[in-house]
Amino acid sequence: KSANPQWREQFDFHYFSDRKDMLDIEVWRKDNKKHEELLGTCHVDITALPTKQTNCLELPLEKHPGSLLMLIAVAPCTGVSISDLCVCPLADPNERKQISQRYCIKNSFRDIKDIGFLQVKVLKAVDLMAADFSGKSDPFCVLELGNDMLQTHTVYKNLNPEWNKVFTFPIKDIHDVLEVTVFDEDGDKPPDFLGKVAIPLLSV
Predict the structure, then answer these.
(1) Range of the domain at 19
(2) Closest by CA position to 119, among listed 143, 153, 86
(3) Whole-number Å distance between alpha carbons of 20 and 171
């Protein structure tokens, strides 16, 4: 019930600097659970923004009244990675030793914001639901921690996909919950939901 909403949300996106990426933003309104209406769109050319600083942007909505006020910072990414299982970042004994020293008790107050990181190995799924008429699915897996999101590649025509990927997240809040969701890729249509599991960090 507001024409001047304040969200105050922060989202982290990870992209490679050699790509020409546009950040596409849509604003929607909800009347109820079933009815939604698009209030406008705007676009930001990420490559045109100065790096290593916070850019305050007021973006007018295209073909609609109103504007969005956003803070966008383009900075080198730390602590987030995607790798194959055979080159797992924690497999190196020297790296494990460095990490143990970094998070030992005597260094715990050196950087208060550096809580730690979470490494997740996504191996495979078993006996997924068939989403296609062929009796198969095209599954991929999405991992969300706070407002960070990473995903696997799609394994086509398979109910028992093997991804064998390693994901590393920086932890910003020890009370966050890791959400792992499996979807069926459906071409240009929104993906179909195949299942989900939630894992509180405090249970790890």
Answers:
(1) 1-77
(2) 143
(3) 29
